[in-house]
Task: structure prediction
Amino acid sequence: MTVNTARTIRVGVIGIGQRAVIARHVAASGVDAVVVAASDPSEVGRRRARELFGADLLVASSHRELIDAGAIDAAIVTSPDWTHAEIAVDLLRAGIAVYLEKPMAITLDEADAVMAAAAQSRTPLYVGHNFRHSAVARLMGSLVRRGDIGEVKAVWCRHFVGNGGDYYFKDWHAERDRVNSLLLQKASHDLDIIHMLAGGYTRRVVGMGQLSLYGDVADRSTHEGELMTDWFSYDSWPPLAQTGLNPTIDVEDISMVLMTLDNGVMASYEQCHYTPDYWRNYTVIGTEGRLENFGDTADGVVRVWNKRRSWDLAGDAEYAIAGNAEGHEDADQLTVTEFLRSLVGEAPELSPIAAREAVAAGALATTSLREGSRPIDVPELPRAISDYFAFLPLASPASPTASPASPTAVAQ
Result:
């Protein structure tokens, strides 16, 4: 199904928090689309909507008001995580195309309900796993597909979340009822990239983790009406000197998961929210070599080792990471553009199946770590739903994706 293109696509933004700014990329998408409406339950959010998208914006207190008004053809949902499933299902059943910020939902059952609503209504669903469009992910993916390290056998990811105290422990992200866990909320990006690089989906998980530091910080605040940018500061160091943490903190600040994928690839993911530095390190090991990134933005590189040797930091080839020097605005632009172009008939690279599988891995790893690290098998989607989405290019993560031009190796 595509959106009626006889008129400008009317876009609504649901939830005007920190991530709502991605909707400003609509104007640069090259698609005849415009943000015409927004909804947020708070007066602060509704005021922020007009500041972001214009004083003449139609603003409502709930997404249902926009549905009832017939005001929008598509929605960009940037509301808090625990609201994603309910809002997405309502919009999809109303025939409104949905861009749903990751994670798709905070439980596997909710994610499958969103998938079912999209399949039953035949309404476009797109999940904003923007890190798929990051320069580092595209570069690593292109090297894997080109065969530089042979057949992938293992993928490891270490995530040093140096801004964790400010980003995740001063608001609702610190509460299980709101996010389930940061192994889902924060890690869903990396679990998705692991699947992409490995060419498979997780089918068994074992999780470990604990609240090891931030639970000991006594200074708490509600930060009502504020966004993360209002309190963020690099001066908040060391981590135990943080102030204004959320009154409730019951998610883990350090966690890890072991995964067995459906194609036999073994994978691991580790996350810590109080490191001094903030970046992701992936290691991909194949039958003919390995690759590893150092930095994950434009100041970083990906190195490949594919000759036998002892220790050598330089490797056999080095590839510069393009994209933004900080953050992921370039990936946000590509993701929003892909969503809008999918509404006028262009096939998207990202499949909702991949988004569901990231939720499955993260949510069930969380269950494992909270139940004594017991192994848990990941159920597959019902066949009727997976068949509906199978036409999308990335229903199988092994399928090719758009990639940058072949990078030039730096002689070592």
